[in-house]
Recover the amino acids of this structure.
């Protein structure tokens, strides 16, 4: 790299006029980089606000289809479904997670029917379905059991693939689940269903508003997910998780949360050739919305700068609750 000396090198020359800034820009953000996460409810004609996530709602399927239509219209390539399960349908064995007539498979089918080109990503984890709010099945001491949970996750993933999900996204952090799901898919003829592995999923406090949204916060109580989600202090460990998941058959890997973990996104992008997605999670969203509501920051420019920074860090795509707004602003 040449460095040069003042005045022969004046870095401001390329910044001086907007045409030059346009030509020299290294990173571009478009609607096709965005994935919209949505919360779905049983029932009809329901829209529920989530107080810690202003502007985000839980929708019954009929209402969700309207949002899905907006996403298609704005050029957003995919949505990610998160079910809100009635507490009387939660159990210790989480069997609602692989019910073929459940909320998620029903939603997949009707979204696919109306919007065949919209990619559908489903979450593979048991927390919406467990009465204790953990992502897996627990033993009598409350510890999440790995292999028993993996067997349940395989059933859940097959149920979603059968219903027509394009991408299943295991967010549970059990060991060996990617390989087991891939093997089950290959065995049943689901050769083309993608697996988006939440490989670098941290034990983060930024998930709080999401747990309000799906109602798992109360179920979880004082328990933590520290025995399966990664310690925020670690980065090499995330690289090992990613390597294992790719080896087991992941098509895409995920880093989550996003903004406080952009170093992990960059490392993953530099180290691997598998596409990297990042999740701009609920707590990150809530902070921006709270500051914007107080007029402490300008929402539009902060959101677009934030999303651009994900791309600059190396993310191929970003899951974000700002997706519809951002796609409108980018038009
Ligand atoms: C758990 C799950 C979590 C999120 C999505 N799925 C976190 C958790 O409860 O551990 C968080 C997403 C967000 O905060 O936006 N399977």
């Amino acid at each position: 790299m040449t460095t040069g000396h003042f005045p022969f090198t004046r870095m401001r020359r390329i910044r001086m006029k907007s045409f030059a800034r346009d030509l020299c820009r290294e990173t571009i953000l478009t609607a096709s980089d965005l994935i919209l996460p949505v919360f779905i409810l049983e029932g009809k004609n329901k829209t529920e606000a989530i107080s810690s996530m202003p502007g985000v709602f839980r929708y019954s399927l009929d209402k969700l289809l309207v949002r899905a239509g907006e996403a298609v219209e704005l050029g957003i390539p995919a949505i990610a479904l998160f079910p809100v399960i009635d507490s009387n349908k939660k159990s210790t064995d989480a069997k609602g997670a692989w019910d073929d007539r459940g909320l998620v498979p029903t939603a997949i089918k009707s979204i696919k029917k109306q919007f065949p080109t919209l990619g559908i990503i489903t979450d593979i984890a048991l927390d919406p379905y467990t009465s204790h709010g953990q992502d897996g099945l627990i033993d009598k001491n409350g510890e999440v059991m790995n292999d028993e949970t993996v067997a349940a996750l395989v059933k859940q993933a097959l149920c979603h693939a059968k219903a027509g999900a394009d991408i299943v996204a295991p967010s549970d952090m059990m060991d060996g689940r990617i390989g087991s799901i891939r093997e089950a898919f290959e065995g049943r003829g689901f050769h083309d269903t993608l697996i988006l592995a939440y490989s670098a999923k941290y034990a983060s406090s930024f998930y709080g508003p999401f747990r309000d949204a799906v109602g798992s916060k109360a179920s979880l109580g004082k328990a933590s997910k520290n025995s399966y989600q990664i310690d925020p202090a670690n980065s090499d460990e995330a690289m090992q998780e990613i390597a294992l998941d790719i080896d087991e058959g992941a098509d895409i890997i995920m880093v989550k949360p996003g903004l406080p973990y952009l170093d992990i996104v960059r490392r993953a992008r530099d180290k691997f050739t598998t596409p990297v997605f990042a999740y701009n999670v609920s707590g990150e969203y809530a902070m921006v919305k709270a500051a914007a509501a107080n007029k402490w920051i300008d929402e539009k420019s902060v959101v677009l700068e934030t999303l651009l920074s994900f791309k600059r860090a190396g993310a191929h795509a970003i899951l974000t609750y700002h997706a519809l707004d951002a796609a409108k602003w980018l038009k």
The first helix runs from residue 18 to 24. Strands lie at 34-41, 47-49, 57-60, 78-83, 119-124, 167-170, 194-201, 252-256, 276-280, 317-320. The first strand starts at residue 34 and ends at 41.
